[in-house]
Write a structure and sequence with these properties.
Number of strands: 5
Helix content: 40-55%
Distance between the termini: 29 Å
Strand content: 5-15%
Largest sheet: 5 strands, parallel
Shape: globular
Length: about 260
């Protein structure tokens, strides 16, 4: 495993150089370019409040909070960010369902910054569902993972206490992330924290890794030239997969864990 991870880092650095010389990809997402096993896409725990809203055809309010990949940095238009494409996919699949998706991403932030603005940008909106994109900037800045995990735990508890459904979205699979060995610890930490708190993780890192390893996409077609941020194609793939996962999870019966 260690040899494989080292190979990922070397390949990531080489591909980063290629990305910096390449122009942005112009492809648009389709079923063939970002297919993945169901196990990678599904949300593993229930979204009770979201399910209730959808069952009653009541307005569903979603707040997406995160950093630059929530803002949509690297997309050719704000309408092609992942939150915008997620909203469009929800409306396409549920044309009679009123849905509002609010993008509260801020470039360059870590979860410390995001928790500090929860009251204004999340709680005040009284959402049914919060999608919280976390981890990447902390890894890029080599933060202490244990301390960072405590910040994220505090934020999750705050959102749950307010009565909101919460989904964590983990890091993107990208050369600049893979160049930092702490990415493995971050992935494990976020998965363990979500399990502890009984909330789902949208496994962006694993999905993007699968697209590359399966040969459907590569770093040049999947990322912006900076080797970090996604582009129109991959934001669309993420938005569509997330919408499908939310709809499926909300339609599933809530099962109490016996573990």
């Amino acid at each position: 495993m260690e040899r494989r991870n080292g190979g990922f880092r070397r390949a990531a650095l080489a591909l980063l150089a290629a990305l910096l010389l390449a122009g942005p990809a112009s492809a648009t997402p389709d079923d063939k370019s970002c297919a993945a096993p169901h196990e990678l896409e599904r949300l593993r725990t229930g979204l009770a409040r979201t399910a209730t809203r959808l069952a009653r055809h009541e307005n569903l309010t979603v707040v997406t909070i995160g950093s630059s990949s929530t803002v949509g940095y690297g997309a050719s238009s704000p309408d092609l960010s992942y939150p915008s494409q997620f909203a469009a996919e929800l409306q396409r699949r549920m044309p009679d369902q009123p849905v509002e998706v609010r993008n509260e991403g801020v470039n360059g932030e870590t979860s410390i910054d995001m928790v500090a603005r929860f009251e204004r940008d999340v709680i005040a909106a009284a959402p049914d569902l919060v999608i919280w994109q976390v981890g990447t900037n902390a890894v890029l800045r080599d933060f202490d993972i244990a301390r960072y995990r405590q910040v994220v735990r505090t934020g999750i508890v705050r959102l749950k206490d307010a009565g909101f459904d919460v989904i964590l979205m983990d890091m993107q699979f990208a050369p600049k992330v893979l160049a930092h060995p702490l990415y493995r610890d971050m992935e494990h930490s976020l998965a363990a924290l979500a399990k502890e708190q009984g909330i789902p993780v949208f496994r962006r890192f694993a999905l993007m890794q699968y697209w590359v390893e399966s040969g459907q996409l590569d770093f040049i077609t999947m990322l912006s030239p900076d080797g970090l941020h996604m582009n129109d194609l991959s934001y669309g793939c993420i938005g569509r997969a997330l919408a499908e996962a939310v709809i499926e999870r909300a339609a599933s019966p809530i099962v109490t864990s016996r573990r």
